[in-house]
Amino acid sequence: MKTLFLVDLQLSSLPLVATNSSLLDFYIRLGYFGACLGETADLDCASTSSGSKDALIARVLENTTNNTPSSASACFLNCLTGVSNRGLRLIATWQISFEYIRRDMPTAAQLLSLMSLFDRQGIPETLLRGHYRQDTSTETDTEADRGADCEADFDDDIHTLTSYSLVQMSADGGELEMHRLVEFSAKKWLELSDEMWKERYVALMDSSYPVGRHENWKVCQALFPHAQAAAGCRPGGAEALEAWASVLFKAAWYASEMGQYGAAGSMDASALEAREATLGAEHLSTLASVSNIALVLQDQGEYEAAEQMNRRALR
Fold it and tell me: Is the pTM of this model over 0.70?
């Protein structure tokens, strides 16, 4: 018999076995929520309609936010295409957990939202602390008060997310990891919600990712997967788009130093396009992107194309 593990945050973590739809609903109504993440998770139910998307949406609407229908939940599940019935059932269960966290532990939901934009492995804890909360401080709060609140909330929020098995902490406590299903589900959710998270993520990566000089290679290597993830988070606003281009420019610099010319060329091209749109063709940052592309072409032996780009940069 395959097992679905559900976590009760009010009691100590207990592995419970759910073998059919009615038992799963029973645990949901009692407040037991969890992530059906492992290959052992099985939501194949006795009900003949359990594989139907409409039936799944109805169950999510019935069991979230104190039985108050959530149009956002319906939109989220309806937008999923190309997902197997089994995958959809797992995602629907994730959605129930996430709705509960958003309602009762909003800062934990904010942390998960930001984390979902990183590469799912090796997320540095230092990049999360103090960077995910929507500001709830008052004018009378001192800087020390705000810092202490952020530290306490972060520890509580990490405890919440790890208790739900939505994230895992590394052995040394310095990095976090998300299951691929959690990452996929959270990203899909964000696509339907706030552009703010993309803007916050690219701003955070721009301030954290150094230029690709030799003395920065260790940091560049550690953060490179997250810079690659940022490439898929193109924001809409001009200021955020400029920050996004800066991240790609610096990551492309490092990639070219490592001989990863395909990745470097793709990032450089995206950075150049964004800088032309936001800064103009003659801006120094735009011309720096042109020079980067010329260097990548030259390193690949495409000398004529490199010369054309160099001429453009020197105009």
Answer: yes
